Amino acid sequence: MGIQLYGHNIDAMAESAKIATEAKPDLIDINYGCPVKKIANRGAGAGMLRDIPKMIKMTEEIVKATNLPVTVKTRLGWDSDNLVIEDLAERLQDTGIKALTIHGRTRAQMYRGNADWELIGKVKNNPRIHIPIIGNGDIDSPQKAKEAFDKYGVDGVMIGRATYGRPFIFKEIRHFLDYGGEMPPLSLKEKVDLAKLHFNKSVEYKGCPRGVYEMRRHLISYFKGIPHFKEMRMKLVTTIEPEKVLELIDEIYKQFG
Fold first, then answer.
1. Are 29 and 1 in contact (CB under 8 A)?
2. Contact 43, 34 (CB under 8 A)
3. What's the pLDDT score for residue 145?
4. Active site residue 34
5. Which residue range forms the structural domain that includes residue 14?
6. Which end of the chain, N or C, is surrounded by fewer C-beta atoms within 10 Å?
7. DSSP-derived 3-state class of residue 133
8. How many CA atoms, within 13 angstroms, populate the side-chain half-sphere of residue 99?
């Protein structure tokens, strides 16, 4: 379990690392990759890619502020004219971080286009790099995860958007890597049970209506591909009361199971 920090003020970030350490996570992760406008435009997240000296100084101060392992997630650079990741990876490693996650896009790309795994592979295969390199971007199948390991040599893969409504993707990948074949697909009943558990945890943790709102994109993905699902999908994304959402999920199995 890691706690991720983002910000643009060095002193505040170092203090945040000290506070986060008191919660006793396994690691502290620094987010230098978030491309969202309200974050990046104030110099936090991927905004740090426009001020590399400040990024390095901030990382040094966070490493000094905690006795926990510190990791970093970042992107290839601010835009295609500033692909700084190869040199940046070395400089970040020199600050004392214990691992680096690289999203294979620039901030300017946001989530458009394809992730550049060739550049991630160059960082991993740099003989001076000795910390684990974790690749991120477009891993949405066991086959792509295996390619990331076999072709580019990364130490791990990070998965974001492909987990929406598919938390079992990690199990699918693990099965594929261990046995060389695809895991049998979950039955509709298994997906319904998992979606209900996921939904209940979301509402328990985030409350209502936020927990309901944030589950909508997951619920749509859980049941993606069911024919004649349009009417039920509309109900799932417009219903607010948790009890009624759970009833709708049960109804999916009754109608389509």
1. no
2. no
3. 98
4. yes
5. 2-138
6. N
7. strand
8. 18
